[in-house]
């Protein structure tokens, strides 16, 4: 089969392209660095020639709800319109466990993306994943004050990006299924501890300071909304096992 992978140069996208190719599929990557902006119909439509299904693993680097809603709304609608022109019957989106419930900051965009797809009569799948193992790395040099790294109080259940990519391949090969079972890692972690362990294996002089964020976003990060429920599928690689690969 031939799959278009939006965001195929990103963390999950790269792993998904690799997994698809290993399973003998053809892939086309939709990313600005490959000359295709998925919010621009004139660039997306020709790129979907001969494509059987679209996997959307794109993202926008923002914590601003308006910006996130704008990006995921425009990107999803543009992809769906181009898919319709080509008669492509399966759109697979990657979302985040708990994002639709929190619906604030970056997660507001994921809520919008999910809402657009859930409003369709069919032809879609959504895979909600927990944070990838490398999520903790963003706190290495952002939110810095001298050697202090600020980390939100956050419960997470980090998952291997390769295991998420493998789950995506199963979904895209199997056909539209609506909301797929969530995927998370094998155990719950506290984000500040994940950052501390990362700084430690890197022999960094920096220290992680956990802070509770205000508002709906902060509450959602703290209250376990991002952690797998009882019906989630659990990956096998722990955060510590992943850390060992980073040495
Ligand atoms: N990271 C996590 O922990 C996590 C957890 C669960 C779910 N997710 C979801 O998984 C998806 C992928 O996340 P990620 O962390 O792998 O993302 P990422 O590494 O930030 O990659 C983002 C990708 O989107 C592409 N992109 C951004 N704007 C674009 C545009 N206008 N047109 C075309 N391509 C565009 C980027 O390529 P260019 O810059 O070249 O355009 C890049 O390939 C997201 O939907 C995210 O919400 C992430």
UniProtKB/TrEMBL annotation:
InterPro entries: ComplexI_NDUFA9_subunit, NAD(P)-bd_dom, NAD(P)-bd_dom_sf. It comes from the Bacteria. Gene3D superfamilies: NAD(P)-binding Rossmann-like Domain. Residues 36-172 form the NAD(P)-binding domain. Pfam families: NAD_binding_10. This is 3-beta hydroxysteroid dehydrogenase. It comes from Gulosibacter molinativorax.
